[in-house]
Amino acid sequence: MFRRVLIANRGEIAQRILRACKELDIETVVVYSEGDKDALYLRHANEAICIGPASSARSYLDVPAIISAAEIADVEAIVPGYGFLAENAHFAEVCRSCNIKFVGPAPETIAAVGHKARARAMAIRAGVPVVPGSDGAVETEVEALRWAKSIGYPVMIKAASGGGGRGMRIARNDPSLVNGFHAARSEAEACFGDSTVYIEKFVENPRHVEVQILGDQHGNIIHLGERDCSVQRRHQKLVEESPSPSVDPVLREAMGKAAVAIAKESNYYNAGTVEFLLDADKNFYFIEVNARIQVEHTVTEMVTGVDLIQAQLKIASGEPLELKQEDVEMRGHAIEVRINAEDPERDFQPSPGKIGLFAAPGGPGIRWDSHAYGGYSVPPHYDSMIGKLLAHRKDRESARRTMLRALDEFVVEGIKTTIPLHSRILAHSDFRAGIHDTGFVERYFAAARPVIRGGS
Amino acid sequence: MFRRVLIANRGEIAQRILRACKELDIETVVVYSEGDKDALYLRHANEAICIGPASSARSYLDVPAIISAAEIADVEAIVPGYGFLAENAHFAEVCRSCNIKFVGPAPETIAAVGHKARARAMAIRAGVPVVPGSDGAVETEVEALRWAKSIGYPVMIKAASGGGGRGMRIARNDPSLVNGFHAARSEAEACFGDSTVYIEKFVENPRHVEVQILGDQHGNIIHLGERDCSVQRRHQKLVEESPSPSVDPVLREAMGKAAVAIAKESNYYNAGTVEFLLDADKNFYFIEVNARIQVEHTVTEMVTGVDLIQAQLKIASGEPLELKQEDVEMRGHAIEVRINAEDPERDFQPSPGKIGLFAAPGGPGIRWDSHAYGGYSVPPHYDSMIGKLLAHRKDRESARRTMLRALDEFVVEGIKTTIPLHSRILAHSDFRAGIHDTGFVERYFAAARPVIRGGS
Amino acid sequence: MDLNLLRKLVRLMDRGELAELEIEDEKQGLRVHLRRFEESSPTSPTVQVLGGGAPMAAAPMAAAPAGGPAVAEPSGPPAGTIEFASPMVGTFYRAASPDSANFTEVGAKVTADSVLCIVEAMKVMNEIKAEMSGEIVEILVENGEPIEFGQPLFLIKKA
Amino acid sequence: MDLNLLRKLVRLMDRGELAELEIEDEKQGLRVHLRRFEESSPTSPTVQVLGGGAPMAAAPMAAAPAGGPAVAEPSGPPAGTIEFASPMVGTFYRAASPDSANFTEVGAKVTADSVLCIVEAMKVMNEIKAEMSGEIVEILVENGEPIEFGQPLFLIKKA
Fold first, then answer.
1. Which domains does chain D have, with CATH numbers?
2. Is B166 assigned a catalytic role?
3. What's the confidence (pLDDT) of residue C5?
4. Is C59's CB within 8 Å of A408's CB?
5. pTM of this prediction?
6. How confident is the model at residue C90 (pLDDT cuts 50, 70, 90)?
7. Partner-chain contact B45 C88, CB within 8 Å
8. CATH fold label, A132-201
9. A410, A389 in Cβ contact below 8 A?
10. Which residues of C touch D3 (CB under 8 A)?
11. What is the average pLDDT score of chain B?
């Protein structure tokens, strides 16, 4: 095991990694920007090194600054957390060239799974279902109709250079396909200067279900069950849980095997996540691989009892996995909500500032991962998440009730947070029944959004 | 289940009961003294009623005030927690006469198990070992020698009216017994005006091991394994854990059966604890029954997954136990430390006052039960405990390491606490090896005690 | 829907001569709007209740207790008067029995031994004496109302 | 729902002869609006109370700019001098190589283009220039010492 590592991140995940290192008796060096210089977690590290001004580009994203800090602090490894440089193949490559272990997959793996088309091809090779589609440009109406027939309606016409919903059309029959094909091409040309479109199966009201994997450097790969992250707002996850209310043991095994197959195909080691869409008929489709620890790794930790950050460190130092697939047991149900310094009443605008009175929930079944405390100033420069609140109980309904009481006792003054929104989400009949999909938040809580708009 | 209950306690256990009630959808009325009027947990109750001034005698111990509050608030039951009126048979009797359910055992049971001689007789009837002894006055040298022979050395000569270590002598052979017998008699006469002494087996370097029981009103009784509370200072528990490092499955079953037998003998229902001394040869001896929830019930909750406060409420409302003995499974290892507002450097003198900067630990494996927060004033009128910190991990060593890192990241400014002492206790080689006994704290941490003495 | 709560609110309006009362309690997912007829017509308040704004019967958790937010504490008694606080928790009675006359009234002069009221606790009727001389300026609680320890019962102008 | 709070508010209205009272306590998720019957007095002020301590009243916009609060900086450099801070994290060298002369010394005069030192980061030797004219008063770090971003390296008396 490493004797001394550098933590190249900030906030709750820096805190989380510090905790794992201490429990493994690893010395810690944490880097920080001037925007974080008063953070309490810096006190818990063996050493803290300022690497730049508050701007991420000149601190947490600055490869030379971080490598330089690692060199002067004489560490054996760098732990990237999530975000920032966590899935940057170049950074992993630089670490390797500097003879510093990167606590993550090999640079080649990061590059491969990070490339949409290569990842899709990998999934197909591994025999894992992907969202059926044309897999390339569709040039004519006739071609479009042929693809739609082979895929089956509804389908989505997407601009190859597109993004943000522009140049996209849903078609449910031949006439709307023909109209949509031309409309999407014109829009794509107008928006992106490239009229190329492709066609994909449109998965209606999907759930977002992802599988946690762990692979070591000796070719062992296991999965730790799934997480359901269907409560999203504009693709930002708000609530995560494990197990998924939509996944039964048979489906779990099928999805787990698919995730492991993809991981093997990419020579994956480290903790990682394979994301799927799950449709109403329980068909699942591969979306992407996240070659890093994720924010919501915590729900998997609660139900499996596995410390994923410790596992990452052990894997990176060359140790074989401690668990075999048959040792993995899911116990109870865990729900996590993300506490963000945002105002859900005002279109989720960030609400940085100094926290006044602060009392986080506790008691049975509650886990709280955060770097915040009464008197802490949430800096305006970074992600607005100030903590993750988890409830772990024997079943989903108990976990939901525990979470509701925890949200109710949560006191944060001085900034706005997502706490009241979470109370409403968890009390909603669809969430309670476990039948919500990825459109749930927009469908029911959109009204809470644009009450007041800023000047712009 | 009850619709509305009154919580007749304060501080962390009031908070704990509030949490359980909310999770069970029970309305809560919490009573408070003027000394607690600014406590944050009062906000979480449906109603809060001031019942008296800060003095316990005129508030939390004032039976008419509490019953009166229960009547005006129109509750179905009173939840007593621990301390105050929790083991007061008279109070339980008054509740019964007022047609209010007391969340605890029947008054007759409380009275029976609270009487030392009756409890001992009950244990003997149940076939459970008690500390062997003369069971009554020993009048002469000859009698003393006869008892010592039948019990076996070492023995303890104790003043019948004694207490606080006075009038006590240990004897390891016949001559020291004869000397001790006379010395103890003289001392007892001098101290208590009563020279009566009795003789008991002296259990050397014992461990304090207690068994958690749950019994319903239909005669079902189960045990939930043991807790080891050997880390004590002057009979005050400081650290508790489950399972005990000294108890193997065979011993666990034997002690569990003994506890259940005693509970049956006393027609016990409610959560409860049967305390034992465990000697170096793994012989266990019954000490007493605690007819209430205990401070350290939390460690059992962590390893068994059973919510004991919820269980108490269900039992009191007449529900049968949800678990059978064979359903009880202990998973992992839990350690609890009591965070007291005391100064371990100054003979543990209380350190009430206003908390400044405050950051409780969190992250994986950590549970924090407390009513405290940054800005809270610890009142000088009550017990000094401000919270209980628990670490629950897959095995004892992992739990110990998690607890050490949690203690390390704990920030409490403005008052003194037992946090630094706990770091030293958990780092001690005897604790790590699990070979500490009830003399452990006095043996190794006594130096920390009498540095400075107050005026008295 | 808690009818008891509504009854209490209506009583409160009556006592306080309120024409209108609106409450929104987001935590309870509750919105109440009560409006009474303007002065002329005496009885029957118009009651309009809008319940459960939240998607589901939201977590049944409740609002502030006494001693909560700073706004709850009104400024203190008017100059020259003192608040006579209840020495115990219980039920407040202005008379020894439903048929008896009230112990005291606004404007009455009292001395240390004057009984001001009874507080019933555990079926025991506790006579509460003034323990000062003065004049009753206001009676702050209704007959039969539950009271806390320390709750102001009377405003007294000390002699 | 805290009836006691409402009672106190009504009494407050009564005493203050308020016609209307509105409270929004976002922290408690509570909004209360009370209006009393118009009395003979023509001027009934409409009072609006926004309560609950000052949680949201306090503008939630972050103060601290990139540099952080000035108070955090311990005492500061001696009068007339300024601290020259490292623009990067790395290793501090006073000379281009172990055999070379130091770039500067205490008492030396420097101009904007004067190289003061080298900071090595990722094997790259970065020459650090003074970017001002002045005199070196003190050298704050040792040759070969690891330095943080923003760490003071020199005290310079500006020309």
1. 3-59 (no CATH), 81-158 (2.40.50.100)
2. no
3. 67
4. yes
5. 0.86
6. very high
7. no
8. Dna Ligase; domain 1 (3.30.1490)
9. yes
10. 5, 8-9, 12
11. 94
